[in-house]
Write a structure and sequence with these properties.
Chain lengths: ~140, ~375
């Protein structure tokens, strides 16, 4: 059964859209996309590239050579090594959905009071104001 | 970016013995800082005034960048600036140390070899060789250099080979696959003879600018077609060298095909054998089956290794090539880097793994 882990402060994401954290000894990259939060194992399922160094790009579709439609800006993560692409919402690989996927983890934001119930706040100075980011693993 | 990194944990089986990486790409921080010191004032002024034009007609630039910025892993840019693989300390931290690499062959690209101005090409190649020695091999004994050559000028190549081959810093001579003439052409023979006489393998790395279209039927539309065409150019250059009699004329010649993939080689050998048997009027100077010549004279580096959906098909392919002929290569820092932890399937014997990751290369290069 997945446990909740407090991994960051919301304020850590000022000026950035991502943060690499460690949960149960495993590297997890947290992305903040607008008001949405996503977490995935920081290893590409292909050869282990560090996904937190990847670029967030758009979903690209084409019906014929030279025709392109772009949508969902910033919702596709491209591995910094070989360029494998993953839907940040589902983890599905874009070229071969159903065959490969990145390992996703639930991410949510909780208040200080709620975070205290999760009970692993040792790494944080809880006297500061602000909400906390929680990963389920 | 909000990234905290930690060193990768070494696996126990990797920690025992270091691996040999037969394709890495050190790059100068800048021409002015690191290459100009090895050029005369004349050539510095020449480059500032006229630039370095590649042999690629009617194009205002080259195919770079490719796929990723500077064709490199996005995490390979050194934190204190400069292009990927321009900082030895960062390359040690990101690649050599965590992957337990204890021999890495440097193959500098993009500068010198395929310049259209022949004398400039000679001067820049000479500078690149001095630069490798001063900035890389003398600072980390794991790094081994390639003698970069302006291969359209055989005399200049011989001079560079004779100058650098006796040093422990250099392990091979380096050409690019897209030569202006097929590689079996006689004008290149003196280079092969000098390399063999100095016990240096000739490595042929992907790409270059020969002035010819990159495919037999012209210029493709997409970068990735250009990249794939390298394997075809390697099939072409091997065919040329086999059928034009290079390997029989120079029995000590060792050829290393770098970054072309590997799986096309066995089928090429099968085909060359069958055609050779039937065309003795043209090919009677080739006295042994092409597949035998290829087994004796050709090595392949692994990257970019094929990744068939059924992984054992890759192992069957390596069986056909010969496990002793394939050398691990990472291509660090480029975007199609192969991580040594993932490059081979799990069910490979200890001996095969040891040869692939180390022994084949150490034997080829005469290293302990």
């Amino acid at each position: 059964m997945a446990q909740k882990h407090v991994v960051a402060r919301v304020s850590d994401f000022e000026g950035t859209d991502r943060k690499l954290v460690e949960v149960k000894g495993r590297p997890v990259v947290i992305f903040k996309l607008g008001e949405d939060w996503f977490g995935m194992l920081n290893r590409c399922p292909h050869q282990g590239g560090s996904l937190c160094a990847g670029k967030l790009i758009s979903w690209v579709e084409s019906d014929a050579p030279g025709e392109f439609r772009m949508s969902r800006e910033g919702e596709i993560l491209r591995c910094p090594w070989h360029g494998w692409e993953f839907d940040i919402r589902t983890g599905e690989n874009c070229a071969r959905p159903g065959k490969y996927r990145s390992r996703q983890f639930g991410v949510s934001v909780v208040t200080k009071e709620e975070a205290e119930e999760v009970g692993n706040l040792e790494k944080f100075d809880v006297s500061q104001e602000g909400d906390f980011v929680v990963v389920e693993m | 970016m909000n990234v905290q990194t930690k060193p990768e944990v070494k696996r126990a089986d990797e920690a025992k013995v270091g691996i040999a990486d037969c394709d890495t790409h050190p790059t100068p921080k800048s021409l002015e800082a690191e290459i100009y010191p090895f050029l005369t004032q004349h050539w510095r002024d020449y480059i500032d005034t006229y630039g370095m034009v590649q042999r690629i007609g009617f194009a205002s630039g080259t195919q770079y960048p490719k796929g990723q910025p500077r064709a490199s892993r996005r995490d390979s840019f050194p934190p204190d600036g400069g292009p990927p693989a321009s900082n030895l300390a960062f390359m040690q931290e990101q690649h050599l140390d965590p992957h337990n690499v204890d021999m890495a062959v440097s193959i500098p690209l993009r500068i010198g070899q395929a310049l259209n101005q022949a004398e400039l090409a000679v001067a820049v190649c000479s500078a690149i060789n001095d630069w490798q020695e001063h900035f890389w091999t003398s600072k980390d004994k794991r790094m081994k250099a390639s003698i970069v050559m302006a291969y359209e000028n055989a005399d200049a190549c011989i001079e560079q080979i004779e100058k650098h081959a006796p040093k422990d810093d250099f392990v091979q001579v380096s050409m690019l696959s897209r030569t202006p003439e097929p590689m079996g052409h006689r004008k290149y023979w003196p280079i092969y003879e000098a390399a063999a006489a100095n016990d240096m393998p000739v490595a042929v790395h992907a790409f270059g600018y020969g002035g010819n279209p990159v495919t037999g039927s012209g210029w493709p539309s997409y970068y990735i077609e250009d990249m794939m065409a390298h394997s075809m150019s390697c099939a072409g250059l091997i065919t040329s060298m086999v059928y034009e009699g290079v390997f029989e004329r120079i029995p000590k010649l060792k050829l290393v095909i770098v970054e072309g993939g590997i799986s096309w080689l066995p089928s090429l050998a099968w085909r060359l054998d069958r055609i050779w048997e039937k065309n003795r009027l043209e090919l009677s100077h080739v006295t042994r089956p092409p597949s035998e010549l290829m087994r004796d004279h050709i090595w392949l580096t692994s990257q970019p290794i094929e990744e068939p959906d059924t992984r054992r098909h890759l192992l069957e392919t390596i069986e056909w090539i010969g496990w002793e002929k394939v050398l691990y290569a990472s291509d660090y820092p480029h975007w199609d880097f192969d991580d040594p932890k993932h490059v081979l399937p799990a069910n490979v014997s200890k001996e095969q793994r040891q040869g692939f990751f180390r022994d084949n290369a150490m034997k080829l290069y005469g290293l302990a």
